[in-house]
Target: Phosphate regulon sensor protein PhoR
Amino acid sequence: KPHIRLQMQFSLFGDNDRLIVAKDVTRLYHLEQMRRDFVGNVSHEMRTPLTVISGYLETLVDHAQELPPKWRRAINTMAQQSSRMEALITDLILLSKIETGEQTLNDSVTDVNSMIRQICHDAEVLSGDKKHDFRVSVSERHWLKGDESQLRSAFSNLIFNAVKYTPAGGTITVDWKTDRDGAHLSVRDTGIGIDPVHIPRLTERFYRADPSRHQKTGGTGLGLAIVKHVLINHDGKLDIRSHIGQGSEFICHFPRERLTEKQPALTAR
Ligand code: ADP
Model:
């Protein structure tokens, strides 16, 4: 059965006049769907050969001490680049799954409190020699209705970005709280910051505030696109505030309807 997709726009004039514009976006929607499927399929097809290459490279790295320095360097570089490519493919597959909104989100409940503690613990390990000062505060009262693995990806991306873009000794503050409006996760850092001109485009795939930076930080360029789509799937909204040289704050807002009182029994399916 053919579906027609319409984009509706309502405008109000004066007290009583209304203008409704309906635009047929069916073709655009199908093109977008084809693009998503194509990227998803290509990524899947690339994963298997890449896994084989990485496997052999790991074995070579293990035996590289026996080789001349020039070869050793070449093998180490190949291993590094293939693990970058693996991370990229993992993120592309994840993004195409999240974009299609395939999973049913409403019947699962996530204990965001312990999830955030866990991610911050991992982030502290990742921070390593940079020895960031982590300040974590989580409100225990509510859980969130939503997909646990999607939420984990989104929150990990924000918290790991704070680690990546904050120099040694900086402070990373993670705050999960609930109030009358809903739930809010704020991830704040005292890092390098972002020029405000870039903020509106940061959640686009592969958009980087400073293209030369990612060489050093090694991200896939898809982290914030993943965050954006996870939030769309959970009726949420992302706020970004930043000052260059002073730090950034990323805030995820979820509406009140997404909250549920902490009830462990609810997690049983
Ligand atoms: P990447 O893999 O490049 O980190 P993301 O989608 O996660 O990709 O982020 C997009 C861009 O936003 C980054 O390249 C970086 O320029 C900027 N950015 C994201 N988080 C931060 C942060 N906490 N501080 C400064 N810049 C950030």
Observations:
- The pocket of adenosine-5'-diphosphate is lined by residues 157, 161-162, 165, 189, 191-194, 202, 208-210, 213-214, 219-225, 248 (CB under 6 Å).
